[in-house]
Amino acid sequence: MIRLACALGLVAALLFPQQELHPWRWVYASSSDDEWLVVQGTASVRDSSGHLFAELRDDDDTSLVRITLDGLISGANVTATVTQLDTDADPFRATGKIAAFCPKGGKPGRQTIIVTAPGGQIIALFREIPPC
User: Fold this and answer.
1) CB-based contacts of 49, cutoff 8 Å, min separation 6
2) Model pTM?
3) What is the pLDDT of residues 38-80, one digit of tens each?
4) Domain residues for 19?
């Protein structure tokens, strides 16, 4: 139990440092009857007292915010409203987890936020973090 609490504390401390050392990257995937739509880019992620807000920018046009996530973080759980901008798609609710993966040997780790929605959408945000 103590180990889990320490790990969650590490995730929270590392998730939103005052100064980001490594940029966030993201990928969005959505399935239809016969194909997958996959989009990726860079993201800005902010947290204020458990409130998550992320802007996901397109790799092809970095001035374009393609998707926003607006929601809550509680422990390792994430619940967010996902809005796809410049489309006629309705906002949808997605849930998932935040985590930090820390390999042994002083190697950099990886931090992730992964959410899914019942309609088949998947959003994964990730960035490299210092050895932990």
Assistant:
1) none
2) 0.81
3) 999 999 999 888 999 999 999 988 889 999 999 999 999 999 9
4) 2-129
